[in-house]
Each structure stands twice: as C-alpha cells, then as structure tokens.
Amino acid sequence: MKSILFRIFTIVLFLSPSLLASLNINAQTFEKRVDSLLQNKFQPDEPGAVFIVAKDGKSVYRKAFGKANIELNVDMNTEAVFQIGSMTKQFTAVAIMMLVEEGKLNVSEKITKYLPDYPTNGEKITIHHLLTHTSGIKDFTSMKSIMSIAKKDLSPKELVDFFKDEPMDFTPGEKFQYNNSGYVLLGYIIEQISGMTYEDFIEKNIFQKIGMSDSRYASDREVIKNRAYGHQQSGEKIVNKRNISFNVIYSSGALMSTADDLLEWQNALDKNLLVSEKTKKEMFTNYTLNDGEKINYGYGWHMKEINGYSSREHGGSIFGFKSMGVYIPEKDIYVVGLTNCDCNSPTQVTRDIAVLATNYILK
C-alpha cells in the first residue's frame, strides 16, 4: 500500500510543474488573444472601454482601453464608472423577485392589483408579462413624441401617464417584443409596494448589501469619481453625448456601475445573497408564449447559447454608452464590457471573448 501511494505521489509531484506550466501558457495565450481583439476595436485616442473576464468568481483579465474623456485627454482606467443602460433591467427584475420572496407580490397577479388606475383595455396583464417583455404595452421609447419629455424630470407617475393610454400592440403573452415601458412599470410597482423610491430601494437592498460601492442611480450633475464621459458619433466627428433626464429612463436603464461592481453583482447572484436558488431557477427560465413558442428570455436576462454552453446575457444602450454582460453557468465564466461611446458596441466582442474563455484553462 505504501509503495502504491509513494508512486502516486511521485507521479503527481513530477506532473505538477508541467501542469502548472500548461495552465500558465494557456492564461498567457488567452490574454494575448483578448488583447488583440480589444486593441483592434478600441484605439488609444478614441472613446474607450473596460473589460473584465472572471473564472470561478475571480478576475483573470481586467483592462482599460482608450479615453475616458476626449476633451480633457484623460485615459480610461479600470475603475471607471459607466452608465449601463438596459443592464439596469437585471437589477429591476431581482428587486421584484426579492419582494416576491418577502411575500409582497406574485408574478402571476394582474398589474392592476398594484396599479389600480392603469388601463389594460380589458386584458389580463401580469407582472410576469412585464418581466418577459410579453405584455403588449406600447414601448414608450418607440413613440414619436418621446423627445417632448426627454429632458423633463418626470415623476414615475408622470412617466407612466405618458404612455398608459396608448393602444396595446398585441394581446399579452402573444409575442415577445422588447419593452422599456414594462420595466418602468416594474420600477413604479417596486415603489408602491416598498414605500421607497426605486433609487433608494436599489441602493439599500442591493448596492449596499453586496458592496457595490461605485454603483448608483445616474446623474449628470453630481461629481462622480472616475466617471467615464459619454460620446457619440456625428458624421466624421466624435461629440459629447446628448443629455436626457434619467427620470425618463428610470428603472429600465438609469443605473451606473463599474466592471468590478458588476462582477460583485454576478458573484452575489451565484452565492444566493439576494435571492434563493429556487427563485433564480424561476428567473433563468426560457419562457414561452401563449402558443408554446419559446422566447429565450427569462426575468431580466436573455437566455442564449455560446459555444455550445447555455448563457445568460444582457446588454445596454443609452446616449453615449453601451454595455454587455455574459455569464456561462456551466463554466462559471463571466465577461463584461463597458464602453463610453454608443458608436462602438461591446456586444459581439464580449461574446467572442466568452467563446475564447470556454476554450482555455483559466485559473
């Protein structure tokens, strides 16, 4: 027995250096491949980006590219704070499910239970429909009159009043149609149930709880350390982003964060620090329409596939910024990319990096 154990120990002892060398080569090759992808996409003197790749909850790649501010010639840094646009919807969905776990609402209930004055035109619109973009409610961002309110600091009620009387686009559950109005209503429902503003609810129950210290409800007026300034393309020129009121995008897209904080967010979800495993299964389900067709969307996440693995994904786009996050549960790989020009989307390159990550041994 001792002889067998000694031989096994000897084999492991001699294999370990080569195994470690192999892991190191893989990590170096992965880094070079990712560098190549991102250096080609984000030039040193143009608006930039921050990317993080994490394996088993820990960062294995974390770099910044380009400029955080073109006017002031400020380089991007990995602590930069970005507007994340529709990645906000993940936080809104989790906030709703936190209230579900507290017994304060049920996703199968009609929205009129919480918003009694909302006109549903005789249709049964549920919380589930709002979460899955299947409500049929008119998306207010597609309305021609949207620019009339773009710079107004509306209350949540005033924002809901802006679109609530619009005709339905389809019967609830009939089709999937990405819908910012639904997530505005979810934010408003959070306020009605909790007695807190959406901003305060997210800050207290999510950001503070899990240590997302550099995340917040967006503001153009407050001084925000390490802010990445937004840019847009105008013809051949790069210009500063157009200003809008964050009250108008509200719970559908008004949060700011960093790549590091978004990794904290993903890790908190993995560890069930915000919602239970049972609730996560409910959130990360490929839901179906009334006719049984799958929509590949859960609650706040697209449910897709990357390189043969199931993935949870969501991007965001708002004047001056684009964002993208991809998580592959089977490999415990998380990739997030944040950019400060809406002219240079991180969506495809984030997915490309996720493919690379599944092909390398990352430790």
Automatic annotation (TrEMBL):
Cleaved signal peptide residues: 1-21
Source domain of life: Bacteria
Source organism of the structure: Maribellus comscasis
Keywords: Hydrolase, Signal
SUPFAM superfamilies named among the record's database cross-references: beta-lactamase/transpeptidase-like
Pfam families registered for this protein in UniProt: Beta-lactamase
Name of the protein described by the UniProt record: Serine hydrolase
Residue ranges of domain Beta-lactamase-related in the record: 43-353
Keyword Signal: yes
GO molecular function, one term: hydrolase activity
InterPro entries (alphabetical): AmpC-like (IPR050491), Beta-lactam-related (IPR001466), Beta-lactam/transpept-like (IPR012338)
